Amino acid sequence: MINMALEKVKMPLQDGASRSKNFDEVALGYTKEMAMEEAMRCLNCANRPCVSGCPVKVNIPDFIACVAQGDFAKAYAVIHESSSLPAVCGRVCPQETQCEQNCIRGRKGEPVAIGRLERFVADWYREHGSKQTPQISDNGHKVAVVGSGPD
Questions:
Q1: Quick one: how far is CA 123 from the chain centroid?
Q2: Where are the domains of the chain?
Q3: Class of the 35-128 domain?
Q4: Which residue ranges in the chain fall short of pLDDT 50?
Q5: For 92, phi and psi rounded to 5 degrees?
Q6: d(Cα 120, Cα 116) in Å, to the nearest integer?
Q7: pTM for the full model?
């Protein structure tokens, strides 16, 4: 069911007294319920204008649909097909002038909070996702990283 609210779900913030005494993030991030509510604002447009505004072409409607259904692991997998840094992009990418600027919901009201949802998915995956390191087969090539140390 589509959430027809004109405004984004508000992101909880640290209060001023607390944040003046720590170096934690000011924005606290969405809860599971908040993320699902915001995801239900997506219209899942046929022409997907939000994807055209994304520099790495994340399949935004598909990952948001997964969030709306509560399948956060699948949402992460969809994002990870195009982006290796969703936690960073969800925080520092200028969504307001890229994907969110093209969101149809923004024509009447606020666009879907794509960056906030991406941040939520990445944070959820960090806490609940797979802890397995993928096995990579040895191909016989050696690699050096400049500045990696004296070895």
A1: 9
A2: 35-128
A3: mainly alpha
A4: none
A5: -115, -15
A6: 6
A7: 0.85
